[in-house]
């Protein structure tokens, strides 16, 4: 990310307005999350919500992870369209993978819309593999691929 500073830290409830703004630019209805969707991600135990901030502290990307027993779920990743292609999504995902492994997760799961090529490229490049699909998961005709990554060998395929 030459010429761009980026800080990854933990998002808090104070970041909710900025996160909801990202939702407006990152997702189409009915896939957008609202405050009631994000608040548990920001305040709940067993949750990790890293934020990517620019050099002025503005939230330009955010992800939401949850740990349930030995499985970590990637619930959400959204990056400001004007800041995509700079490694923010990858940095957020790496932070979540490290958090999950450090907290005892053996694998991470995620759902992604089957036609979301940039996200699929990121996830495949980070070692995720497709394990199944969910019909109409994001609405009529918008299927999801379910992907998984083993965390026992974290670090081998993240770089």
Task: Describe this protein's structure.
This protein is α+β, with helices and mostly antiparallel strands and 159 residues long. It has helices at residues 16-26, 35-43, 88-102, 117-125, and strands spanning 7-10, 47-48, 50-53, 59-68, 71-79, 107-113, 129-134, 144-150. The protein is built from 4 helices and 8 strands. It starts with 6 loop residues before the first strand and ends in a 9-residue tail after the last strand.
Summarize the structure.
By secondary structure, this protein is an alpha+beta fold.
Beta-strand percent range: 25-35%
- Major pleated sheet: 8 strands, mixed
Reading the helices and strands in chain order gives EHHEEEEHEHEE
The CATH architecture category of one domain equals 3-Layer(aba) Sandwich
Which word captures the global form? globular
CATH topology assignment of one domain: Aminopeptidase
Instruction: Show unreliable segments.
Output: none
């Amino acid at each position: 990310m030459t010429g761009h500073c980026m800080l990854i830290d933990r998002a808090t409830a104070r970041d909710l307005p900025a996160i909801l703004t990202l939702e407006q630019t990152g997702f189409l209805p009915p896939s957008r999350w609202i405050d009631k969707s994000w608040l548990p991600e920001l305040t709940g135990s067993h949750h990790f919500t890293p934020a990517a901030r620019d050099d002025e502290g503005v939230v330009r990307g955010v992800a939401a992870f949850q740990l349930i027993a030995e499985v970590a779920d990637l619930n959400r990743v959204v990056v400001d369209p004007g800041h995509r292609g700079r490694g923010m999504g990858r940095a957020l995902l790496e932070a979540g993978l490290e958090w999950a492994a450090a907290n005892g997760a053996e694998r991470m799961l995620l759902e992604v819309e089957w036609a979301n090529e940039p996200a699929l490229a990121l996830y495949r490049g980070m070692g995720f593999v497709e394990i199944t699909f969910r019909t109409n998961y994001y609405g009529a005709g918008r299927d999801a691929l379910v992907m998984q990554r083993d965390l026992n060998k974290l670090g081998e395929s993240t770089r």
